[in-house]
Write a structure and sequence with these properties.
This protein has about 350 residues and is α+β, with helices and mostly antiparallel strands. It has one domain. The chain is built from five helices and 18 strands. A hairpin with a 3-residue loop joins β12 and β13. It is globular, with a radius of gyration of 29 Å. The protein starts with 5 loop residues before the first strand and ends with a strand.
Length: about 350
């Protein structure tokens, strides 16, 4: 089971004014008759109730990242994940940096945020299955227990990936899974049709996967009533994301519509397509921060940079390579359901 190739009021002011009351005139008639009593002025109109105050803006979600050296063995890796999960830190991914011309440094990264202050995460792995149907059976069994699929992982230097699943013990959410034909065999329009048909039923795209000889798009549905809609746009350039300026403009345009970037996917004919997702739980725009990557930063420096942005509400999404080899780091703010295109979800 391996991931396939994809880079993935002004409010109207109501003028409230009381209408001035106009007095009535005297009546005509015989001068010897007593003058009629003057017509009383009408009572002033009641003052309209003030307009209700606007709903307060949702508090910005901020967070914290920590990193530690990867564990050397599979059992130790799972123990490390569960130790941090018990503290409310969700596993993000294992990231590597080039600290020199020939040297690299790796770190396991974890994140906590103010939206999940009470979360306690538990992790389990599943052995590699022999087929897509076998994987689906495994994941649906795990999902019934509250475990969501995160991503395929290699632990302890092994060559055979396992399925990493995660459960939030503070919640009672359950999950179910379906598979559909893989994006690599679909046109852009066919992929968008598949995505929106699944999303309307509450199934969110996990990504393209392989299990044994089977390749497919995996979808996950949780026990909430959340639904999803998708926009698929032609990719730009060899990597599918185009130049930094083009990427930034595209993200700003789609983000203003509440759309979360999922990455650039390989589609039919070895073309690429950028996929954007909107959750029915999304509130307002999704904001993006695109800046030059620092591939030679140390793990400590990378962690510090992530924390600087997380303090402003921007959470790490992915490093991307654009046209002409441009490397950028993409961070996202105000996304209802953020996930990394390769490393999957953080909080289930």
């Amino acid at each position: 089971m391996t991931p396939l190739d994809f880079t993935r009021r002004t409010a109207t002011l109501a003028l409230l004014a009381s209408l001035a009351a106009c007095g009535g005139g005297g009546g005509g008639g015989d001068s010897s008759a007593p003058a009629p009593a003057p017509t009383p002025a009408p009572a002033p109109a009641p003052t309209p109730a003030p307009a209700p105050a606007p709903a307060p803006a949702p508090a910005a979600v901020t967070g914290q990242y920590i990193s530690q050296a990867p564990a050397a063995a599979g059992a130790a890796t799972l123990a490390a994940l569960n130790a941090q999960g018990a503290r409310g830190f969700a596993f993000l991914a294992t990231l590597a940096t080039n600290t020199g011309a020939t040297s690299t440094e790796q770190g396991d990264f974890y994140v906590s945020d103010t939206a999940h202050g009470g979360s306690r995460l538990e992790y389990e792995t599943l052995a590699q299955p022999g087929s897509g149907d076998a994987l689906l059976a495994q994941l649906n069994a795990q999902g019934a227990r509250g475990f969501a699929f995160k991503a395929p992982v290699l632990t302890g230097g092994g060559s055979s990936p396992s399925a990493l699943t995660v459960r939030d013990a503070s919640r009672s959410t359950t999950f179910s899974y379906e598979k559909q034909p893989i994006s690599g065999g679909l046109s852009r329009d066919a992929l968008q049709s598949q995505l929106n048909a699944q999303g309307a039923r509450g199934y969110r795209l996990v990504g393209p996967l392989m299990a044994g000889a089977d390749s497919f798009n995996l979808y996950m549905k949780d026990s909430s009533a959340t639904t999803y809609s998708y926009t698929v746009i032609d990719g730009d350039g060899p990597s599918g994301v185009g130049t930094t300026d083009a990427l930034r403009q595209r993200l700003d345009t789609q983000g203003a519509q509440g759309q979360l970037f999922l990455g650039a996917f390989v589609i039919q004919g070895n073309a690429s397509a950028q996929v954007f997702e909107r959750s029915s739980a999304q509130n307002g725009a999704v904001e993006y921060d695109v800046r030059a990557a620092t591939p030679q930063a140390s793990i400590a420096q990378l962690t510090a940079a992530m924390n600087d942005r997380a303090a402003q509400g921007y959470f790490f999404f992915s490093d991307l390579v654009g046209a002409n080899g441009e490397q950028v780091t993409l961070s996202v703010r105000n996304a209802a359901n953020l996930r990394n295109p390769l490393a999957g979800i953080t909080f289930p």
